[in-house]
Specification:
single chain, alpha/beta, 8-stranded mixed beta sheet, 7-stranded mixed beta sheet, 16 helices, 25% strand, globular
Length: 557
Amino acid sequence: MVKGQEELVFLPLGGVGEIGMNAALYGFGPEKGRKWIMVDCGMGFASEEKMPGVDLMFPDLSFIEERRKDLLGIFITHAHEDHIGAISELWPRLKAPVYATRFAKNLLETRRLSEPGAPKVDLREVKPGRRVTVGPFELEYVPVSHSIPESNAIAIRTAAGLVLHTGDWKIDPTPVAGSVTSPEAFTALGDEGILAIVCDSTNVVREGFSPSEKTVAETLKTLIADAPHRVAVTTFASNVARIRAVAEAAVACGREVIAVGRAMDRVIDVARECGYLDGLPEFRRADSWKSLPRERVVALLTGSQGEPRAALARVSRRDHPDISLAPGDQVIFSSRAIPGNERDVGSIINDLIEQGVEVITDRTELVHVSGHPRRDEMVEMYRWTRPGTAIPVHGEALHLDEHARFARAQGVQNVVKARNGSLIRLSPGTPAVIDNVKAGRLFKDGDVLIDEKDRAIPERRKLMQAGLVSVAIAIDEDGVVLGEPAVDIIGLPNRGRSGEPLIETVVDAVSRTLSGMSRGKLKDSESVEKTVDRAVRTAANEVWGKKPACHVQVVEV
């Protein structure tokens, strides 16, 4: 029985209205005394154009940080970075036990928690299909197919009812490595009665069923068997099914696999430890590349998303210490560019083609399939589960809006449109948004975390667009300018539209401004800085068409 004031609530802090940074809270109890669990704690990758100098983004968890004594656990659905990548950075702010399956736990320990200075996270292993009870919550890990082993939906039971958090999933009867999504398991949950489903929206705009990993494996086997020379395959390092498919194809045609890239090495080690590469020979190291005949090599390379420091990018620039390609070699992109990475991926493809390398992508061959459900798969999930309420998550605005329409078409009586920070009461009463709390992003800037309001990022964007003028002026206590001001320009063109040197334009503007100021005004450092700043920006704009950032420093002597 639910006590009078007890409520079951859902609160996404990341991953709703965006791709990545998944973090969701479930709370149960009276408003002043709720106990909480978190599902996933992931990161996102920043765009260099929008956030210069920032590589990673994390969800702002300040809401639950303020209530961390009531946070009972963090439950990981699977080991993709957008679901586990923030744990090493944000766990010290939460310090709750982290529950994960063996593969996710080992990969987290190997990839994130082995770094210098990483926190000693309280990691607890959960077996798929088992239940875990923490406070008023009972959580059951329900295996699903996805593009990484041991992916799970989580059935969350409380006295108020059952909520199904699907995580990332698809229907694939032949996944090569990992679990299948069981109709019987989800039908049983539907028979029990599902208060609400919190469901993946990524591919809701695509019709039909996602192809199987087995189909990709067959395509890779044919391509590798037909290749006359070396074959390099790049894919997400975490896609163990794809790694296994490449290795099986290599064995079938008498080739050896060379794994290149630290992320790839880590996943391979964990996959072998967990039995997902059983029956396959050990892979060779990168330094074997030159000693093997061209027709006997298959390489697995990191860098499918155009990462500049990954193996494939270095190969495309011809600066990898061990790996090089020659005309007639083949590179297979067994992946699809994540939105925002298209330009970097395209640059690598063009560089490879310029070297005479044949590039194969999913535009011409079935060398990649998504790990997320298309519409017909979602029809099946809703038919199995028959939820009372649907809450679309894991997608941008387009995906969430389309998922909401789709769920209504499946006969779901109540659909709640959420965004990060939407506090949704699931029970008692009809589920609805009842409040909006602080939610946002944190940026990893060097070794520190900054929030969205930090001035560093907008200032860097401005510097990228219009450069910087630096001016230093020495003025004595009587308001006399001592010597010539020191002026430097950074990121501005050498000459203006009429050919005049821009540095001279700036120096003249500074000199005219100071000459026109009285000694009384020159004694006011703040006034001098503002006046010179305005004059410099105006002068530059007149001959260039842009206003640079300007830093003026008055040294009082």
